[in-house]
Each structure stands twice: as structure tokens, then as C-alpha cells.
Amino acid sequence: MQSNATSPQQYLDELPEDRKEPINALRQQILENLPKGMEEQMNYGMLGYVIPHSVYPDGYHCDPKLPLPFMNLASQKNFIAVYSMALYAKKELLDWFTSEYAKQCKYKLDMGKSCIRFKKMDDIPSKLIGELTGKVDAKEWINIYETSVKDNRKRKK
């Protein structure tokens, strides 16, 4: 569910009541652990955590006018989602996360390639998401991203 909000505060203000507390708890952990060189802004109609053009002028290869995405947080129709591109791009991070999730949560992990879905508002591991946020710094994320883009271009040739 994309929002038309133009600022993170507007996004938060427009959340349904039952989503405000869990989204705010996740957001607080993300912001407390967000690596230097990254910032919060609206991105794809969600709360976005990005490497801004001031740090990475090339931007996102799909649309260079956009900053380089790192993580997103969204209230979807039937769940809250955390989109972590680093989980998709770094296998050892995915392995760590799935192991820690199993130790900390009572419900089975519901996850796509980079999307972690939380359908039960009483079992959202906010601190684990915060820890995940801090596992990859801006420089490492740029290196992972650039290597991935370069590898994809080679495969297409």
C-alpha cells in the first residue's frame, strides 16, 4: 500500500491506529542503528532509508534521480513489512538474521527475497530489525550494490 505522504511525519500521522505503535517501535530501532551516511526519507511511498545523493551522487541505477535504497518500512494492507536489500545481497547476513529470528520470535518467519512480513503485531522483533540495520555500513552497501550492478550487466552481455 503506497502512501502519498511527502514526509516521514505525514506518513506516521496517517497510519491506522493499530499500526502506529509497531511502526514507531521499528522506526525508532532503525533510526538508532542507521549507519552514518544514510538517512530517512519517503521512498516508493514508504519510509525509506537511503544513501542520499550527497554521499552517492550516482543514485539508483534504475532511476538515477532517486537515492540509493537500503531499507524500507511500510504498513501494508495485511501486514507490516521491512524491506532489507542487504538481506537479499549478502548471504551471511540472511543466515544470521534467520537464525536470530528463530531464537527471538514465536511465529514462523514470513519472508520473501528482501521483504520480511509481520502479520502478528505482538511478535515484531524491533531490536533485531535495529541490529540488522546496523550490520552494513554505507561504504559496504555501496560496494555490494556496485558489484551487483556490474555483475548483472556482465550476465546480460
UniProtKB/TrEMBL annotation:
Pfam families: DUF1801. It comes from the Bacteria. Residues 19-132 form the YdhG-like domain. InterPro entries: YdhG-like. This is DUF1801 domain-containing protein. It comes from Flavivirga aquimarina.
